[in-house]
Design brief:
By secondary structure, this protein is mainly α. About 70% of the residues lie in helices and about 0% in strands. It is flat, with a radius of gyration of 15 Å.
């Protein structure tokens, strides 16, 4: 891993510690979403994948997690996902 990539990972990990824990597991879920988006971006550079669709899926999944944890089952984000 190049120095710049290592530095970016260090920054992401350090900044993720500052994320407000809105519910149990929220910080971990957001960090997982960031990792998923970075992996999707890497794949996109290699294979020209549908990056916007993958990012939307990750964001909706994270939103659904937050809604479930808060008990907001009437408003899951995947219902509005296209």
């Amino acid at each position: 891993m190049s120095y710049n990539k290592e530095k970016m990972v260090d920054i992401i990990l350090n900044e993720s510690k500052k994320i407000e824990e809105r519910c149990d597991g929220y910080r971990k879920e957001v960090l997982s979403a960031i990792v998923d988006i970075l992996n999707a971006e890497r794949e996109h550079k290699i294979q020209r994948t549908q990056i916007q669709q993958k990012v939307n899926e990750v964001c909706h999944s994270t939103g659904d997690f937050l809604a479930r944890q808060r008990g907001d089952t009437d408003n899951p984000t995947t219902e509005t996902a296209q």
